[in-house]
Design a protein that fits this description.
heterodimer, A: alpha/beta, 3-methyladenine DNA Glycosylase II, Chain A, domain 3, TIM Barrel, 3 domains, 5-stranded mixed beta sheet, 16 helices, B: alpha/beta, 10 helices, globular
């Protein structure tokens, strides 16, 4: 939990000796709280005070990295319950479960390798494989492991193993990467903790409900395993929401360190639609890893998009790259519409142009991700900037006409844009995107 | 270590909405953040209303046409079909009144509403065409025509709330108040509406919806903030139920329309489109909506299963 300047001040000697370089202890305390000064600068601060501040500086939810040599994934270190308070930082890891008894291991690996989709400039994909030791046999498990290593060396792994001796053998093989070990239960917690510690891998602790998991976390802790993942084995959406909310709340608001760990959710369900919904709940409500039973492309697209949306920064508007985009198959006679690069504006306008079935050029101008009116008010969507953008875009050479459609909200720019863009005629479009289909159809009709 | 549940303290309870004449539907009434059964009461499950339109839709994509094209030439047939699919409420959108559509007259819309009310006993939500000026003409007439049927009328916006609020009040209906993705605008509109003596307990906030991938995160967070302001920070004007008009936004997206041959990496269209609606809807339930307006029956069934699982 963050510690305030006043709380730090109370722990200082309050002599105002100035040895720290600040005029008063209070001023120094405030700087320490903001992270702009180090407590070590105070020669009088006791070890106890330093320990307390160090504790306060440790994230309430532990973060760590796992994965292979070249593909490292960080999970944990979340700081808020609601994304508008700051943001969610380390996106949920999606993992496909593969049983070592499956006959078509190669097929599954290929599916994961070929899962990537580009969306708004980001490459999204299934991040990891959860390899389950269904056979409970060490040899079979290691054979499959070899297959995966050969085919997809860089793919991060989570190993679902209930027998400690199988786990030890598998980890011996994976010394160059850092997989997560899953399968610590009340029956094997001591041995599994020892193995996780020996190979320095994160350990997933599984038991029914928060209270029981807490006991196992205590044991793993006492052995010295630092990087843990919690699995409370919820049976329903209700339990999943409750357990995840309480774990996040307890660690962030109550400072309960023993619950300050990332959470894993096994979303596997018999029905693919329902599995997608459960996985969505887990992404929205605090799971750091979600295990899936299958990854058809439609499911991936839904979950990738959800994850991308929810882990975006609420303080930074989503932006689209400045460019002239084609909507449909526009030609030299097609209309050209200019607007700002606020992602919402882009999506709405593009969607409505598509609805109109009129192919068009969509000129998206970099306005730092502001909407039309805000960008205009901030001077970023001005007549001279629009004119400069259109000139430099090279669109003039692609067109047979010189008519630029501007958003209805900036109708007042019409004259000024025409002054700055000699030869061009400016057409005032609609205020709301929803009016675009009718507007465009009329516009095209009037040209014929 | 013994674990004691870290509970939140709440100051506000969401009013309960009851609508419909013979058959009634309920939502709202909860005293904690969505589905936090461990610290509050939830007298009603969230409600899903099946959307129908007053005329053959111009922009329903293939996946919806497959389901509804045999009934969509008549709103009564359409509503009855939804009833066979398990609808507990109907949301009638008067799209034909939009100036860019047929620009049909308020009286025509009122006739259609009367017909539906006389033949269907499901609770009815009556929505304009989202054209602010035209809705101000249409909704008062429709409100009057459905007097005594205890409907939900929407949507009142900043530019037209006065006439719509007055008519909803005279007609004895509940009211959807829509503002554009902003906590303060939502609050402001509710203040204006209650200043006309419309009861706060009969207002439903529409914070403006969006679809997964298309501004979803804004809506999601605005809803969470409205809930927190209303229930935890004690802001009375924001302590009312919320609606997510999901279908209207989802079925415009490319993800619900593009064929597999156009974009092979997006996979099967049917599942993709249905789940685009279901996941958008489930997410907004988690961020605070109690009323959903949806289109595809399979998406609705998936969301119903989710609600059942949350209430298990």
């Amino acid at each position: 939990m963050a510690i305030t300047g006043i709380e730090i001040f109370k722990l200082l000697p309050k002599t105002n000796c100035k040895k720290c370089g600040f005029p008063t202890c209070l001023a120094f305390a405030m700087k320490v709280a903001q992270g702009q000064a180090d407590i070590e600068q105070c020669p009088e601060a006791s070890e106890e005070v330093k320990a307390k501040l160090k504790e306060a500086a440790t994230p309430p939810i532990r973060g760590f990295v796992f994965g292979s040599k070249n593909t490292k994934i960080k999970i944990g270190e979340e700081t808020v319950l609601f994304r508008h308070e700051k943001k969610f930082f380390n996106p949920t890891v999606l993992a496909l479960e593969i049983k070592d008894t499956e006959s078509n291991i190669d097929g599954f690996i290929n599916e994961v390798l070929e899962s990537s989709i580009e969306r708004v400039g980001q490459i999204l994909k299934v991040d990891a494989i959860f390899l389950k030791n269904e056979s409970e046999n060490s040899e079979i498990f290691n054979q499959v492991l070899d297959k995966i290593i050969n085919k997809a060396f860089d793919l991060p792994l989570i190993l679902g193993i209930s027998k400690p001796e199988v786990a030890a053998k598998a980890l011996e093989k994976l010394k160059e990467s850092r997989p997560i070990l899953s399968g610590a239960t009340p029956e094997n917690i001591n041995e599994m903790s020892e193995i996780a510690k020996k190979y320095n891998v994160p350990l997933i602790i599984s038991d029914k409900g928060i209270e029981k998991v807490l006991k196992l976390v205590e044991i793993a802790h006492s052995v010295g395993v630092q990087d843990l993942v919690i699995d409370t084995q919820p049976n329903s959406a209700k339990e999943l929401l409750m357990d995840n909310t309480l774990i996040r709340r307890a660690s962030l608001k109550k400072g309960i360190r023993l619950l300050g760990y990332p959470i894993i959710t096994f979303a596997n369900r018999d029905d693919n639609f329902y599995e997608t919904v459960i996985a969505s709940l887990a992404i929205l409500k605090y799971s750091s890893i979600v295990v899936l039973s299958s990854i058809p492309k439609w499911k991936n697209l839904v979950l990738f998009t959800l994850k991308q949306n929810i882990y975006s920064d609420p303080q930074v508007p989503m932006q689209v790259k400045q460019d002239i985009y084609k909507v449909g198959e526009p030609d030299e006679n097609s209309p050209i519409i200019v607007t700002t690069n606020f992602a919402l504006t882009y999506f709405l306008v593009k969607g409505e142009i598509e609805n109109s079935k009129v192919p068009a050029w969509l000129a998206i101008m970099d306005c730092d991700g502001l909407s039309v009116l805000t960008a205009w008010a901030a001077g970023k969507f001005s007549a001279s900037k629009i004119a400069q953008f259109i000139k430099e875009s090279g669109i003039e050479e692609k067109l047979n006409h010189k008519e630029l459609i501007i958003p209805g909200y900036v109708a007042m720019l019409k004259g000024a844009v025409e002054d700055k863009l000699p030869g061009w005629k400016v057409i005032v479009g609609t205020k709301e995107a929803s009016g675009i289909p009718a507007f465009l159809r009329n516009y095209v009709r009037s040209k014929k | 270590m013994k674990f004691s549940i870290p509970k939140e303290t709440y100051t506000g309870k969401i009013p309960e909405i009851v609508f419909g004449k013979e058959k009634k539907a309920y939502f709202g009434g909860e005293s904690a953040l969505p589905f936090h059964f461990f610290e509050g009461e939830f007298p009603h499950k969230p409600l899903i209303a099946f959307e129908i339109q007053d005329d053959i839709p111009e922009d329903y994509p293939e996946e919806l046409a497959k389901v509804y094209s045999s009934v969509w030439d008549s709103p009564v047939k359409w509503a009855k079909f939804c009833e066979t699919l398990g609808a507990e409420a109907i949301a009638l959108r008067l799209m034909s009144t939009h100036p860019d559509s047929k620009d049909s007259k308020p009286e025509e819309a009122a006739d259609k509403v009367k017909k539906i009310l006389s033949e269907i006993d499901l609770p009815l939500i009556i929505l304009g065409s989202n054209h602010s000026e035209k809705d101000a003409e249409v909704l008062p007439v429709v409100s009057d025509a459905s007097r005594g049927y205890n409907c939900i009328i929407g949507k009142a916006q900043e530019g037209n709330y006065k006439t719509i609020t007055a008519s909803a009040m005279a007609g004895g209906h509940s009211l959807i108040a829509m503002s554009e993705l902003d906590v303060n605008l939502a609050k402001q509109l509710n203040i204006l509406i209650t200043q006309m003596d419309f009861p706060r307990e009969k207002i439903i906030i529409d914070p403006m919806c969006s679809a997964l991938g298309y501004g979803f995160e804004y809506t999601y967070s605005v809803m969470e903030r409205i809930r927190i302001a209303g229930q935890i920070q004690g802001d009375n004007m924001l302590c009312v139920p919320m609606v997510a008009d999901v279908g209207f936004y989802v079925w415009k997206t490319k993800e619900s329309q593009a064929s597999e041959s156009d974009i092979p990496e997006w996979g099967s269209l049917h599942e993709r489109a249905v789940m685009w609606e279901a996941v958008t809807a489930c997410s907004f339930l988690l961020s605070g909506a109690e009323l959903l307006i949806m289109r595809h029956p399979e998406a609705i069934n998936t969301v119903k299963r989710f609600i059942g699982d949350l209430f298990s």
